[in-house]
Amino acid sequence: MNAAAWLWRRCTARTPPPIVETDTVYPLHRQDDQAFYRQMNLVWLLRFEDVLDVDKLRLALAKLLERDGWRKIGGRLRINSKGKMEVHVPEKFTDERPAFRWTHQIFDMPLDEHPVGARLPKAGDHPYVQLVDNEFQEIETTSDQALTPEALSHLDEPQCSFLVTSFTDQTIAWSLMLAGREDEIPPFDGAEEDVMDNLGDENQEKTEPFALQDRLLQGFSLARFVLRVVWDIARRPLIQSKIVFLPASFVSHLLQQARDDLKASSEGEELPFVSEGDVLTAWTMSVLPAIYGNRPYTVMNVADLRGRVPGLFKPGHAYVQNTLTQTFTIFSAEDVKSLGLGRRALRVRQSIVEQTTPAQCAAYARLTRKISIPLFGEASGTMGSMTNWGKAKFFDIIDFAPAVVKAVSPAFPPSAQDEDRSDAGRSTDDPDHGEEPSITQRFDQRIDAGNGRSRHAAPSDVAGCCSSARLVGEDVDE
């Protein structure tokens, strides 16, 4: 933010409402209270190919947010005298001070007849790119819901807002509470204490530096890197949000191409593992020379710490906060041009493996306490961020079957995997057993009619909620 913009914000900022003495005050943890997060408004889109009972959804969510710990989600954001953001939770949620904002709009027509709904991305046999800049605003959020955390800190408004858009054949829209399985809801941990404070303790006897410590951009090199990024933005001021849809057959072809590349260069050694996420990351680098010319490139991947650091999290507890680490893969300009798809993917995989050990996660956490956003690479280079949400299992969790009012036949026949199931109402990418379904499996599966599960036939089926959420009908790292 430049000085003029900062001064304008300070001069025009509204005075926050008075503090309510009976509110319970919780801290917003360090990874959640980053300057750039304060200017973001996360909006997710869920699409269900069934008509849902909206009141059941609303009441189930309201009941969930009355539970200990979970009430924090219904609080109001405030900035305290030290400049830190915190959450003020009403002693009792009321119509005047609700736990969330809920709006329901109904269109008396099928989804495909609505001028906006009909443009929702659909699966197909060929890759395609679709512009989504404000494309679906009418069915995803209302204007008063599109507020950043900083804007919300000046209002007595809840963090979460929901817009449910119902059509005659589909709903554009909490599963255990909805199903009456309250005893299975995990206890909420970390409402007051930040679990991340226990990672990378400076007093630990055995520590190691971060693997790329010697490639850290700082001082003159950081200034040079930032200036180049600013220049890149100035030359290309128009930023558009687009969806890139890749059918399973295309991704499978890329994966086989990467394996063939690795096989040709492995000289009889065991073929190294690369994931679909690694290959897709490497594939996106193919366009870099045409955009950035002869410049080095750093790939930044986001990884979830759950399951990576033994003893950091309590088993069976819910942590509603950012618990992330980052990995960096540095490519020289020559690497970007000369390495084949498989070798680029392997470099990404090796970086993830090397930089996500418990000791390396701790090393990176220590570094972020000194530098909020460490950057690595070459001062003359550029950087891109990638993340694979496959392990988040959103569609394993989202199950609104108890709220189904009217089951609608799926637009596509169910996959063979779906036909073998007897557990209707589960998420579409819940495997029978065994290994994790791949990214392409998750894109290709379809739902059985009447199960209340969100469809993910295309990347448009991205779901979630934050300061604003949309409920209409994907998955964090390898």
Chart the SSEs and their pairings.
Elements: H1 3-12, E1 24-27, E2 45-48, E3 50-52, H2 54-64, E4 76-79, E5 85-89, E6 101-106, E7 128-131, H3 137-140, H4 149-152, E8 161-166, E9 171-172, H5 175-178, H6 220-235, E10 242-245, H7 248-266, H8 276-284, H9 288-292, E11 297-304, E12 324-331, H10 333-338, H11 341-355, H12 358-370, E13 382-386, H13 394-397, E14 404-407, H14 416-419, H15 439-444, E15 469-472
Parallel strand pairs: 2-15, 6-8, 8-15, 11-13
Antiparallel strand pairs: 1-5, 2-9, 3-14, 4-5, 7-10, 8-9, 11-12
Helix pairs in contact: 7-8, 7-11, 8-11
Describe this structure in words.
With 478 residues, the protein is α/β, with parallel strands linked by helices. α7 (248-266) packs across α8 and α8 packs across α11 (341-355). β8 (161-166) and β9 form a beta hairpin. The model is unreliable at 411-478 (pLDDT under 50). Strands 2, 6, 8, 9 and 15 form a five-stranded mixed β-sheet that branches. Strands 1-5-4 form a three-stranded antiparallel β-sheet. It is built from 15 helices and 15 strands. It has a domain at 195-392: Chloramphenicol Acetyltransferase (2-Layer Sandwich). It is globular. Residues 418-436 have a biased composition (Basic and acidic residues). Residues 411-463 are annotated as: Disordered.
